[in-house]
């Protein structure tokens, strides 16, 4: 009796890039509310990588890039307002 198994499927680069674009958007959106010092740069890096790899979700990647930059601008505004690295409640 011969046992055959299915070959493992490889994830395509376009599918990975699409996931990065969505992750960039979500992290940028969450970064506006909390942890913008970490999530902002991470969102920018993921969006740039997704665009470089040729994602089919270019709009989502550009939104993630814009939200990541907005995270950094919000961080800079709060840092200049009260001289801290985070929000103070």
Q: Your description of this structure?
A:
The protein is mainly α and about 90 residues long. The chain contains three helices and no strands. It has one domain. The termini are far apart. InterPro entries: YqfX-like.
Short structural summary:
InterPro entries: YqfX-like. The protein is an all-alpha fold and 89 residues long.
Identify the notable features of this structure and list them briefly.
single chain, 89 residues, mainly alpha, 3 helices, 69% helix, 0% strand, elongated
What kind of sheet is the major sheet? none
Structural class: mainly alpha
Q: What is the CA-based Rg, rounded?
A: 18 Å
User: How far do the termini sit from each other?
Assistant: 69 Å
Rounded average pLDDT: 85
Helix content estimate: 55-70%
Low-confidence stretches: none
- N to C succession of SSEs: HHH
List the helices and strands and how they pair.
Blueprint: H1 13-31, H2 36-52, H3 58-82
């Amino acid at each position: 009796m011969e046992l055959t198994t299915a070959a493992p499927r490889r994830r395509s680069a376009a599918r990975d890039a699409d996931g990065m674009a969505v992750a960039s958007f979500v992290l940028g959106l969450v970064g506006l509310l909390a942890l913008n010092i970490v999530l902002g740069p991470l969102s920018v890096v993921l969006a740039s990588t997704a665009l470089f790899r040729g994602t089919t979700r270019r709009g989502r990647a550009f939104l993630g890039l814009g939200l990541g930059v907005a995270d950094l601008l919000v961080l800079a505004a709060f840092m200049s307002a009260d001289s801290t690295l985070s929000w103070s409640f």
